[in-house]
Specification:
Blueprint lengths: L16 E4 H15 L3 E5 L15 H5 L4 E3 L4 H13 L3 E5 L10 H8 L2 H4 L9 E6 L14 H5 L5 E3 L4 H13 L4 E6 L6 E4 L12 E4 L4 E5 L3 H12 L6 E5 L2 E3 L3 H11 L2 E8 L4 H13 L8 E5 L10 H4 L3 H8 L6
Parallel strand pairs: 2-3, 2-4, 4-5, 5-7, 6-7, 10-11, 10-13, 13-14
Antiparallel strand pairs: 1-8, 6-12, 9-11
Length: 339
């Protein structure tokens, strides 16, 4: 009998409490580890320190070094070890600490994590979650503020998701850990301190679906992770200008929820995609192309991409000029001809 032959006991609903996104992620890992003894956690400084952003705070004290362990500063080794663990029945949750730190593990993720199930015709599954704190707006330097989602979404075999709020952070991470396929879990660093009142364990929409956060009639703003807050702020400002903006939070970058996003675009007939990454070759290009192919005759204008600039991430003093802002978004929407 394996450890998964016995169904886990559901955790009881707890009293409402105000949590940051970082705390919600911490609770998700803690609950998953309490629920399933095969869930293990490791990465750089995730043990006694509790992680750079304290997402793993207290987990080492509760579960011990057999289930929570610090790794060497070797991201390729972290992922390579996790592959072996997952192949032999564990459910590793690993942390890359910062977005650009994941690049030394790129070959392991693209060549092995993404392809193992296909290569073995389904005989070997990799229930592995790779947590990547990503994106900017925290005053970090260039190797700590990358938006690398396009690398991962361009790799078949990976599920790529990004929560924008504490409730989704908890729910989506719990779902990612139970998935039998590998998940790249992109955590927007600028949202770690966002707060919400939650009754845990909370379950939001399924991890692979988009949600309409704000109804509108004139244009659809498509955002994910750190830019969702920006999209909502833009929609609120637009009211004074007589513009009704619908905001869609993608949540899942791959797979893409064509049904939800397409329905919104067909309703409003106009759309813009927001992301912090550079525009050329960015994830927004795929979104714009996909929506155009499927909804061309519903569109009143070309789909816009409002993004970071085509430069390496700038110094902290300049990042406010690099990131999409409500003013820049409204100015971009104003370039359309409105009949």
């Amino acid at each position: 009998m394996t450890l998964h032959d016995t169904a886990p006991t559901p955790l009881p609903l707890r009293a409402p409490v105000t949590l940051t996104m970082a705390a919600a992620l911490n609770a998700a890992i803690q609950d998953a580890m309490r629920d399933d003894p095969t869930v293990v956690l490791f990465g750089e400084d995730v043990g006694p320190l509790g992680g750079v952003f304290r997402v793993t705070d207290g987990l080492y004290a509760e579960f011990g070094e057999s289930r929570v362990s610090d790794s060497p500063l070797a991201e390729s080794g972290i992922v390579g070890t996790a592959i072996g663990m997952a192949m032999y029945g564990l459910r590793p949750v690993v942390e890359m600490q910062f977005d650009a730190f994941s690049y030394p593990a790129f070959e392991q993720i693209v060549s092995h994590v993404a392809k193992m199930r296909n290569r073995t015709r389904g005989r070997i599954q990799l229930p592995l979650v790779i947590r990547i704190p990503y994106a900017g707006d925290i005053g970090g330097v260039e190797h700590h503020s990358d938006s690398s989602e396009a690398y991962w979404t361009a790799t078949p075999g990976l599920t790529v998701v990004s929560p924008s709020n504490p409730a989704d952070a908890y729910s989506m991470l719990r779902e990612a850990i139970t998935s039998d396929d590998p998940v790249i879990f992109l955590e927007p660093k600028s949202r770690y301190w966002a707060k919400a009142e939650l009754s845990l364990p909370v379950r939001t929409a399924a991890m692979n679906t988009a949600v309409v956060l704000r109804e509108g009639t004139d244009v659809t703003l498509i955002a994910y992770g750190p830019t969702v807050k920006t999209a909502v702020a833009t929609a609120e400002l637009a009211v004074a200008e007589g513009l009704s903006i619908e905001v869609v939070d993608l949540r899942s970058l791959s797979p893409f929820d064509d049904e939800t996003v397409g329905a919104s675009v067909r309703k409003t007939s106009r759309a813009a995609v927001l992301h912090e990454a550079a525009q050329f070759g960015g994830y927004g290009a795929e979104v714009a192309a996909r929506l155009t192919e499927r909804n061309f005759f519903y569109l009143a204008a070309p789909i816009l991409r409002i993004t970071g600039f085509d430069i390496p991430y700038p110094s902290p003093k300049l990042e406010e000029y690099f990131l999409p802002t409500p003013d820049r978004i409204l100015a971009a929407l104003g370039t359309w001809e409105w009949n």
